[in-house]
Design brief:
Elements: H1 2-36, E1 39-48, E2 54-65, E3 69-71, H2 73-83, H3 86-106, E4 113-117, H4 120-124, H5 128-139, E5 146-150, H6 159-171, E6 175-181, H7 187-193, E7 198-201, H8 203-207, H9 213-228, E8 232-235, H10 241-249, E9 254-255, H11 266-274
Parallel strand pairs: 2-4, 4-5, 5-6, 6-7, 7-8, 8-9
Antiparallel strand pairs: 1-2, 1-9, 2-3
Helix pairs in contact: 1-2, 3-5, 5-6
Bound molecules: ligand C2E and calcium ion (3 copies).
């Protein structure tokens, strides 16, 4: 009946209205944030499971909004993708991450490989190969110290074009990794085609390792399969010693997660590099 519907409709309207308003505000403020330097990168170490050494780090973008406080990339990256702002944002992340990795290398803190997340939009809607080549030239970072993390979604729209560009990036000497591996639905055929050197096991599988036999099996299978294909495997979302022990025992090459360290601002990451690791 009409009466019964009213509250649901009213609820729908106001929450949708608020969500829409917030998205609009985020979209208009993000442009400003990029220009005003309100974005920042945090770095999460990637740790070699056998030795405990830090071999690289994933750069993760952070936005401290002057009025709204910290906004999660889970919220603003999709908005940036839909509005096209992901192009200038992504270029900034790439340049800043490469600049920082080169600075740490030059300071003698180690030849660490920096991993940058790249949206499918960045791959498809601009001269991404030119941008990566120019960034390497501008920052002086050796290509093998850059890794680009992409999801399988990159092949969903214009597969041929995407594949050409991924190959061209690989030919620059840059490493490519498939992020969130196992959550897409064409993982296996993509594995054969994509010019990648690394798989990242999605954190949803790692989280269930100890409680869920299926997640343990899946992780084991992904590690074995990656190695059969000659690929390196990274497990993300390692939160406990038990996770780390399990994955090390299964031969996982690298690990990343709160057990080792949360994403850190650059000074904290430098302190971590300078001191013996606590794990
Ligand atoms: P992602 O690429 O899968 O990044 C991993 C996310 O897991 C990060 O969240 C990281 O902080 C979080 N994480 C790491 N270790 C643990 C752990 O042990 N436990 C748990 N529960 N979480 C852990 P974050 O920084 O909020 O980023 C979320 C997503 O936003 C990223 O997922 C990525 O898809 C996107 N993103 C972040 N920075 C960028 C960027 O610069 N460019 C693009 N295109 N996307 C980005
Ligand atoms: Ca990632
Ligand atoms: Ca991931
Ligand atoms: Ca993810």
């Amino acid at each position: 009946s009409k009466d019964a519907m009213t509250p649901a409709v009213a609820f729908y309207n106001s929450s949708m209205g608020e969500a829409l308003h917030r998205r609009k505000a985020i979209r208009s403020d993000l442009r400003q944030a990029i220009d005003d330097g309100h974005l920042e990168l945090h770095y999460q170490p990637k740790v070699e499971m056998q030795t405990g050494l830090i071999t690289g780090m994933e750069a993760l973008v952070r936005w401290q909004h002057p009025k709204r406080g910290r906004i999660s990339p889970m919220e603003f990256i999709p908005v940036a993708e839909q509005s096209g702002l992901i192009l200038p944002l992504g270029t900034w992340v790439l340049q800043e991450g490469c600049r920082q990795a080169q600075a740490w290398s030059a300071a003698g803190l180690g030849d660490l490989r920096v991993a940058i997340n790249m949206s499918p939009v960045q791959v498809l809607c601009q001269d991404v190969v030119g941008i990566v080549a120019q960034t390497l030239e501008d920052t002086g970072l050796p290509p093998n110290l850059l890794e680009i993390e992409i999801t399988e979604g990159v092949l969903m729209q214009e597969e041929t074009k995407a594949m050409q560009r991924l190959r061209a990036m690989r030919d620059l000497g840059v490493h490519l990794a498939i992020d969130d591996f196992g959550t897409g639905y064409s993982s296996l055929s993509y594995l054969k085609k994509m010019p990648v050197s690394c798989l990242k096991i999605d954190q949803s599988f790692v989280r269930g390792l100890m409680e869920n036999e299926e997640d343990a099996r899946l992780s084991r299978v992904i590690i074995g399969m990656a190695h059969d294909f000659g690929l390196e495997v990274v497990a993300e979302g390692i939160e406990t010693l038990e996770h780390a022990d399990f994955l090390r025992h299964e031969g996982c090459d690298l690990g990343q997660g709160y057990y080792f360290a949360k994403p850190l601002e650059h000074q904290a990451f430098e302190r971590l590099l300078a001191s013996p690791p606590p794990w």
